[in-house]
Automatic annotation (TrEMBL):
<dbReference type="InterPro" id="IPR050154">
    <property type="entry name" value="UbiB_kinase"/>
</dbReference>
<feature type="domain" description="ABC1 atypical kinase-like">
    <location>
        <begin position="94"/>
        <end position="341"/>
    </location>
</feature>
<dbReference type="InterPro" id="IPR011009">
    <property type="entry name" value="Kinase-like_dom_sf"/>
</dbReference>
<protein>
    <recommendedName>
        <fullName>ABC1 atypical kinase-like domain-containing protein</fullName>
    </recommendedName>
</protein>
<keyword id="KW-0997">Cell inner membrane</keyword>
<keyword id="KW-1003">Cell membrane</keyword>
<keyword id="KW-0831">Ubiquinone biosynthesis</keyword>
<keyword id="KW-0472">Membrane</keyword>
<dbReference type="InterPro" id="IPR010232">
    <property type="entry name" value="UbiB"/>
</dbReference>
<comment type="pathway">
    <text>Cofactor biosynthesis; ubiquinone biosynthesis [regulation].</text>
</comment>
<dbReference type="InterPro" id="IPR004147">
    <property type="entry name" value="ABC1_dom"/>
</dbReference>
<dbReference type="GO" id="GO:0006744">
    <property type="term" value="P:ubiquinone biosynthetic process"/>
</dbReference>
<keyword id="KW-1133">Transmembrane helix</keyword>
<comment type="similarity">
    <text>Belongs to the protein kinase superfamily. ADCK protein kinase family.</text>
</comment>
<dbReference type="Pfam" id="PF03109">
    <property type="entry name" value="ABC1"/>
</dbReference>
<keyword id="KW-0812">Transmembrane</keyword>
């Protein structure tokens, strides 16, 4: 009861702050659950009317609510189908909006994590230069063995951030469960799964050793690339609450004047960004999933440098094949094959028609084919896409959320570098290379080799399987010699369920008993 009241009070406060800052007034009325329109009209009565932009109102509201809500806002930017296309665009700009915490608190966290005084770790540690929802960053300096100074970036976890997130996540789960019970659309959007994904992402971000490992893995994957890199990790100065990496001297990707003054080719940078992301997602199944301009720099050699690997995405072989074939289907306008891939992957329920879905895919793809980014309305495209997913009962795929979000962000950043960017032509070389390598003759031979290896492993395990079968047979003989007996707790549970008239629970318990019996008999 106490947890329920706490959750509802936190949600009520969040609703008030959102209404007061004018955020609720900007929610797309078309996505509101039935019966909630009067509540949103009521919210207009307490709205602060000061002419601020949507992004400014969102920033003010989420900053007041704390780091959990800033992170939730950034995450919901991945779900325009939930919050609307306009609000999703506003949420995308929520980066480094939190107030920094005190220098003394940061130094105490460093000393506690590394078990050394700050003066013994760094030759110098400056004030925070950026503060986000999970951590803040300082510029520091270390001394090499020969006494050479080296500038470093020091990321320090926010104090008490874990306890705050635990409490707020409980509220988010409460709201998601209410939303799924109240609306079939909430069930289709899988609101609880969205919070699950957020919770996993935050848990990873709250251990900076994991971010260090992500940087190391990404560096290993991209070691042979000449146009992309990530900063190196200083493992001796890294722990759960502290991450130390090399300092990146570069120009931020949204500093157009600085990039031009340095002589960089902006359309070429857009190509590098788009193709790097696709290469990492398809080739490695491991990609930077927070590629906003604040995390992207161009160094003196013209290489794209990605920092802040707290949010990373992973794709299995199945998802990579799905992504490649879908992109290639759009590039080649093969709408039937594009639709078939959706059905093969299980993303569209089998009772729908492949031809009908191909027709819907064509309606999305034809208007944008062979056009530059400046001619495409991403808002309209996303709106049509989400209408199609609802029409064909397509449920949220949590494993694709970060991919979808990152693709939209990367294309948006690339478009600022080259307004005439054609994302299909830019993507085509990377996608074609992956298709040829993995779905062509070489890929088929490699797949066959893996199959033979699996057969070999199965043959090696055959003696163990036979021995295990013999043991099960002996146990079966002993267990059934005097009949199959149920445990007293199982019988009691069945009796309680039948006494309450709970047919569903009774059926489930008897099904478990039947499965156990079948396991013993067969």
């Amino acid at each position: 009861m106490a947890t329920f009241l706490g959750d509802m009070l936190r949600l009520a406060r969040a609703g008030y702050v959102m209404a007061r800052e004018g955020v609720l007034a900007r929610v797309d009325p078309d996505i509101l659950p039935p019966g909630t329109e009067p509540l949103f009209r009521l919210a207009r009565l307490i709205e602060r009317r000061d002419g601020r932009s949507s992004a400014a109102a969102l920033g003010a509201a989420l900053s007041r609510l704390g780091p959990s809500y800033v992170k939730l806002g950034q995450f919901l930017a991945t779900r325009p189908d939930v919050v609307g296309a306009e609000m999703a665009r506003d949420l995308e700009v929520l980066q480094d909006r939190m107030a920094p915490f005190a220098q003394g608190v940061a130094e105490a966290a460093i000393a506690r994590t590394l078990d050394r005084p700050v003066a013994a770790v760094y030759a110098a540690l400056g004030p925070p230069i950026a503060a986000a929802s999970i951590a803040q960053v300082h510029q520091g300096e270390t001394r090499e063995a020969e006494g050479t100074p080296r500038r470093v970036a020091v990321k320090v976890l926010r104090p008490d951030v874990q306890a705050r997130f635990r409490a707020d996540l409980s509220s988010f789960y409460r709201a998601a469960r209410i939303g799924e019970r109240a609306s079939p659309e909430g069930q289709r959007l899988r609101l609880v799964a969205i919070v699950d994904t957020l919770a996993r992402s935050v848990a990873m971000e709250m251990d900076l050793r994991l971010e260090a490992a992500a940087l190391s893995e990404l560096a290993q994957n991209t070691a042979a690339e000449t146009d992309f890199r990530v900063p190196s990790v200083d493992w001796d100065r890294t722990g759960r609450e502290v991450l130390t990496t090399e300092w990146i001297d570069g120009i931020k990707l949204n500093d157009m004047e600085g990039l031009r003054a340095a002589g960089h080719d902006l359309p070429e940078l857009g190509r590098i960004l788009m193709q790097s992301f696709l290469r990492h997602a398809l080739r490695d199944g491991f990609f930077h999933a927070d590629m906003h301009p604040g995390n992207l720099f161009i160094d003196a050699e013209g290489r794209l440098v990605a920092v802040d690997c707290g949010i990373m995405g992973r794709l299995g072989v199945k998802e990579r094949r799905f992504l490649a074939e879908i992109l290639y289907g759009f590039i080649t306008r093969n709408w039937i094959r594009t639709a078939e891939v959706h059905f093969e992957a299980g993303y569209v329920p089998a009772h729908h028609s492949v031809e009908d879905f191909a027709q819907a895919i064509r309606a999305i793809g034809e208007p944008i084919h062979s056009r530059s980014a400046s001619e495409i309305s991403m808002a309209k495209l996303l709106t049509l896409l989400f209408e199609v997913t609802a029409l064909f009962d397509m449920k949220t795929r949590p494993e694709l959320l970060l991919l979808q979000k990152t693709m939209v962000v990367v294309e948006g950043v690339a478009r600022t570098l080259d307004p005439q960017l054609n994302m299909w032509k830019t993507a085509e070389p990377v996608v074609r290379t992956w298709i040829e390598r993995n779905l062509g003759p070489a890929g088929k031979l490699e797949e066959a080799a893996h199959g033979l290896q699996a057969v070999g492993r199965g043959l090696q395990a055959l003696p163990d399987l036979i021995a295990q079968g013999q043991r099960i047979a002996s146990q079966l003989d002993r267990s059934t010699r005097d009949g199959l007996a149920l445990a007293p707790e199982t019988v009691e549970a069945i009796g309680r369920a039948e006494g309450r008239g709970n047919r569903g629970l009774t059926f489930a318990l008897w099904a478990i008993v039947a499965l156990l019996a079948a396991h013993l008999i067969f």
